[in-house]
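haha ok so turns out i had the wrong file open the whole time. this is the CORRECT one, sorry everyone. sequence first:
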Amino acid sequence: LLFLALLILALTRPFTWTDRPAGRTAVLVLDVSASMAAQDAGQDVLQDSGRGGAVSRLNAAKTQMRQWIDGLPGDAAVTLIAAGPRPQIVAAASQDRRQLYAALDALQPTLGGSDLAAALELASAVAARRPDAVIGLFSDFANADALTASSRANVQFSALGSSDNNQAISALTLNRAANGSAQTLFAQVTNYSASPAQRRLTIAVGADESEALQLYNAYDLTLEPGDEQTIVADDLPANVTYVQAQLDAAADVLPLDDTAWAVAATTSTNVMLVTSGNRFLETALALLPNLTVTTIKPADFEISPKAPAPPQLTILDGYVPITATLPGGNLLFIGPPASSELFSVTGVLEQPVAQAVDVNAPLLRFVSLADVNVLEAARIPLPAWAQPIMVDGRAAGNDETAPLLFMGQPDERRVVVLTFDLRNSDLPLQVSFPLLLVNLIDALTSGGVGALPTALQPDSPLTIPLPPSVAAATLIGPDGSSAQLQPGAEQTVQLTAHQLGLYALAWDGKIQSRSALNLYAPQESNVRPQAAPVSTAADVNNDTAQAAGSGQARREWWRIVAFAALALLMIEWLVYHRGVVAQLVQKTQRTLFPYRAAR
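then structure:
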């Protein structure tokens, strides 16, 4: 009866709550988004620099994770997942503590956001193989709402961060006037804090012939909570090729967005506009600097001979060639009425709701779609070469059969398709229209022969064609480091930017072009920490969910109880068969030690 009682008790899986990690399998997820670089996790000696100062959320999370690993049994297997834009396993089911600590120390904040929901789903898939596995998620939970559907009872959340005090340079551009005699600087500073702030913004300028930056001006700003202030300077000298904007050192917890760079376009770009007449588009293009726009009607385009040197960009407004072939160079389709060799028009979308696939996409930088209304758009299934940028929000799961804006690179050229006619929407009446057009033009006209785009995107590979006479190029990074780039078979080089700051591409001992990489990510600059979510899994009771949300773990005792039941069963068997056991022992002794039996 005692054995049966212990066996039944083991089947109930008894447990106690503990603040120490339980189980022999742990999956630890670390948020490596840019906001985790905020330095508001207390005062200590920084591990990386060895000097006193504020501890970043990321370093505080690493310390907690080390303590978690130290509290596990020696044979426990630990999986580490870095939650960036795409979750990545950096250590898989490892029992080597030194390997785990090295992988943890190597993690650094990215220059973008994090997909915590995808990271948690990946962790859940790993943990599903072990019933005793526990998941730990360390984050400031800037996107905690997306975790509700993904949470499990065996997930323990650890929230980092204590301050929302951050002001950021949210925009910086440098444009040359049409006559080329001066340049215009536009800067925007945003206060993401719930308290007023006073900051000083300094502007420094540089030219190719002078490596040293020269102070241009300084502006004292008073920012109300959530306020934005813009600065426009329209008298910068024509020889200025790049500028630096910097906020003064203050109690700002995120230094990544306190400095920004802007590069002036140095050459004019030839653009051909094929349209039957669109005053909105023609006026907006005429206001953009560094563009030479040639307008042609569709009927004239059909009969015009193919140009020996096609423009760098052709805009096809409400038109797709019928008898003529698509021109060379990059293409921008606006409201295509029919199919082309690059995509197929299969119908019409009635009153679609414009929704961004990724609000941080470069094409939608500074663009708000909240007030945009569209009467109708062409239904174009997403081609294999394209990525959706804007979709019909009514389509479940961002249906790829209903994109409103998509971009790709078929046949070594860039193509963007806006599926609705501008005149069938109120987009031209919105402030976002010129911003969207600037982003489209910049994406389609930058990166000519030997030229960097004026702005880079973090961790995005970029192909730059070089002149035929160039045997090698040098990429100079923001920290002064240089990397040799050897052109491939098509006389192109590949580069990827990982650091914020100013980049330069040089050959023959001369800088040929510059580009800037800045942290323009409102979701990351808004460093206000959020409370850790509480598991809402339907298969657990409220006590379990509350304990999981408070950082407690279940330490189960059923193995010990089951072992005790097995031991009791063996003891009862030995007592019941003690006579037979005694005979076996005596027989074994006589076999092993015959000389003792003879005596």
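Residues 167-265+517-521 form a domain with the Immunoglobulin-like fold (CATH 2.60.40.10).
again sry for the mixup
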